[in-house]
Each structure stands twice: as C-alpha cells, then as structure tokens.
Amino acid sequence: MNSQRIKPESEPPKSQFQNRDLPAGWQQNPSSWSQRLPIAILALLGFVIASYLALYQWGVFSTVWEPFFGAGSRTILNSSVSHLLPIPDAALGAFGYFLDAVTAVIGGRARWRTMPWIVILFGLAVGPLGAASIILVILQPVLFEAWCTLCLVSALISVLMIGPAADEVLASLQYLKRERLEGHSTWRVFWGLVTN
Amino acid sequence: MARILGLGDELMWAQVINALVGLWLMAAPAALGFNGAARINHLIVGPIAATFAIIAVWEVVRTVGKLNVALGIWLVVAPLVLNHWSMVSTINSLVTGIIIIALALTSGKTSDKFAGGWRSLVDSHTN
Hints:
The complex is a heterodimer of chains A (196) and B (127).
Chain A: H1 2-5, H2 33-57, H3 72-77, H4 89-105, H5 111-114, H6 116-144, H7 149-160, H8 162-181, H9 186-190
Chain B: H1 12-33, H2 36-56, H3 67-81, H4 87-104
C-alpha cells in the first residue's frame, strides 16, 4: 500500500484545463458548498443546543430539558467540572460551535487554495471542540453517575464534524507543500497572497 | 446524502458498526447491571472507541479507525488485569473487544482519492 502511493503513476495530472476548484489528484472538491453547508448546519445546531444549556447554567432558564435521565442534566450542568472555568462549559462550547459555523462558510468554492488560513482555522476550531466534548462525556457518568441528553447530542455533533472538515484541511496542507516546493513563500500562500 | 458529506465507500460500514459498539459500551453497565472497575472501563473506552470510529467513517481520515485495534485489545485483556469483573461484564468486554479489533483492521485499506493523503505531506518526493 505504502509503496504504491509514491509511485509516479499516482502523481496528479498536470493538465492546464482541469477544474481549478478541484485539488490536484482529487475526485471531489472538499471546499464545495455541498460538503461545507452540512457542516455549517451541524455547527449551528450545536450552537443552539450549547447556547440553551449555557443560558440554563447562567440561571436564565430555571429548568432544563431532560427526556431520559431524570435529574441527569441538572447534575451535570451544575457540577464542579462544568464550572471549572470563569464561564460555564456550555458557553465555551457555544463559542466553539459559533467559530466552527463562521469558519465553515467564509470563502468560496476554491478556498482550500485561495484562503488556506481560514481552512486551517476551521480545522483548529473543529478538532479541539470534539476532543473537549468527549472528555466531558467520559466524566459525566464516571465522576457524577449521571448523563445529560443534550450534552451527549452536542458531543455527537462535534465529533461528526471532524471527518468532513479534515479533507479540506488536507487539501490546503497539500497545496501549501506543493507551492513551497515550487518556491513560493509558505507565509504568502497561507494568506492567499499568491495568485496563479 | 452520502455524496453530500463526501462519504460513499463500502468500508465505512465497519466504522459505523464500531461506533455503535462504542455506544453500546457506554450503555452496557446500566443495561447489564455491573459496577466497579468493569463499569468505569466500559464508560471510558466506549466514548473514545465511538469517537475514533465516527471520525473514521470518512475515508480521508479512515486510518483513525485503526486506533481502535488498541482499544479492542485492551477490552480483551482488561478483565484479566483489572479486579472484580462479573461474568457478564467479562463476556461483554471480550465479545465487544473482538468485534472492534476485527472491524478496525479493515481501516487499513483506502483508495487514493486524495492525492496520497496525509502521507504525501511528509513524503519528500511526491507532489
């Protein structure tokens, strides 16, 4: 498998006429709207859920919706872990989802090439949010013997975004490397200042 | 739907099943009624295994699914090295561990739709 990947046959075609939105050697454009909009919608859904939970944690709502686990959501959302930081953890999550949604929609169909910086920022926003969510999912039952339905849904959403976000990050990183090998400044390519 | 999210290869189903097995690990202590180290172990391994598998549903990061081989091996040996496992929790850990290992091993095969993938970033002579 590994040896096959570095054979010359797998080199992308260098046609001048190929679709400029498509990364060299790819079958799909990872920056197309059909790939990015679902992520943005997931992020918005996560933002709504996390905002609702944060408003409960701030005392704006006196009760929280919990269909399955009785007092579980109350136990989790008022736990010591959820208040480790100056702001409640759901508020931090809401900010993370907001950043995911914004960085998912900024830029056009070729942004893996025209705006690598926003793609990298998008990846950096999606990854840690997912990791933090999973740590919280583990801590819920282990430390507090409780589950919080909306927290689990939120965690699932954050993990679902990682895979579809990763291909765009890969396309941008491959492009940065390719441009560097052709002698362009990685810094300028990263900010989309090199046009070709 | 599959095309929309950049999905669509057959091997993703192994990851979908592993994700469901991970979720089952989270539910098993309550569903089967066991406690102690077995419960804690299920509740830690379950979400991590499910996360790796869900990420690996997408072919571009399919290799993340291979991390579940290690978690599966741990599920098989955990009843031997941790104390106070009931019969039911031991059987659950062994069976789920073997399933996870078998399905995680399929994540080594990926077609090259991504111009060499992540490996191309470290190879000096591609692109």
